Amino acid sequence: MKTKIGYKQLLKEAEKNITTLEVEEALALFKEGKAKFMDLRDIREIERDGYISGSFHCPRGMLEFWVDQESPYHKPIFSEPHYFVFYCAGGWRSALATQTAQMMGLSPVAHIRGGFRAWREKECPIDGYKQK
């Protein structure tokens, strides 16, 4: 059975409707303390690679449940007045998560183009990484 729409099309459609930040733009928000960075990666990725300093871990699979105030799993951080910047390893999960969060009424919200990989390549602040 051929899928009607694949991940590439989903990403392309999401990118049309969301705010995508270049690393430099995200870093400026980070330095100014004007955004809450939300890490969507799996805990194993975080333990292996570290995380953006001060970020909040929100596993991608829990996003909808944590954002929705009517959910028994709602996290209060999503009711606070933040500029939410989502990131994952490479920017795919975060693009789709940004679109979903935006559709659920979370605002303002954006994601980092290239994700944590791009952040790290630009030598931006990270915690938790222990070079082997």
From TrEMBL:
Residues 31-125 form the Rhodanese domain. InterPro entries: Rhodanese-like_dom (IPR001763), Rhodanese-like_dom_sf (IPR036873). One of its GO terms (molecular function) is thiosulfate-cyanide sulfurtransferase activity. Pfam families: Rhodanese. It comes from the Bacteria. This is Rhodanese-like domain-containing protein. It comes from Oxalobacter vibrioformis. The lineage of its organism: Bacteria, Pseudomonadati, Pseudomonadota, Betaproteobacteria, Burkholderiales.
